[in-house]
Amino acid sequence: MNGPTAEGRKRGAAKRAGNGPAAEGRKLSRSFGWLAFLGTLLVIAGVVGLIYTGVATLTSMLLFGWLLLIGGLVALAHAIESRGTNYFWLGVVVAALNLAAGVVVIRHPEGTAEALTMFAALLFLTGGVFRLVGSVVVRGPQMGWTLLQGAFGLLLGLLVLFDWPHSSLYVLGVFFSLALLFDGLGLIAIGIGGRRIVSMVSDRLDDRGGDRLGGRESGHGAGRGAERLDAPGPATDSPPKAPGDGRK
Fold this sequence. Notes:
Layout: H1 6-18, H2 21-51, H3 53-81, H4 88-107, H5 109-138, H6 143-162, H7 171-230
Helix pairs in contact: 2-3, 2-7, 3-4, 3-5, 3-7, 5-6
């Protein structure tokens, strides 16, 4: 019975490769593709938010309120599970504060945006002043960059504060949109880079598999040739004649 042909061996190797590293590479490639797609959606949302900053501000406030509500519910469930311990009332208080803050933010998103904008302006002012004073006092090797960062933070805080409360309509929306935009660009870069790396690794694995298959086929061919060379010649029915049989 004849052994498997070269075509059959190739099909078997391809079938085994379909269940091995090649299949895992395809799964990873699809995962990185979905990551790049999510990054594209985030970039589109960030660009739209930069165009419609007022809508982005209200959206960010509503999302913030719902996150507080969900966090309060989770904290309350955790506190109920840990009743009888010393941390029960602390968990209840934290859950109640989160729930109350979430309700206030959802019911009054404009007022919440104004309060958070004022807090952001004061944060920029204090951060800029501390950077300026620290860079002048310390005089380190990065003094120039620290001075620039401090001046930028101080200027940004003054601009937001002088235009308050009108600045609350666009400041938080701009920050929220920029965060979406940069996060989306990062996800796109990770997705595209990951797909390239997976493709390179899969190509190298395919090349190694082809080299191994070719080596096995050449080894089988050499073995068959050796078998043919070592095989005895055709047997004859008559026994060998003695040297003196042909004489009279």
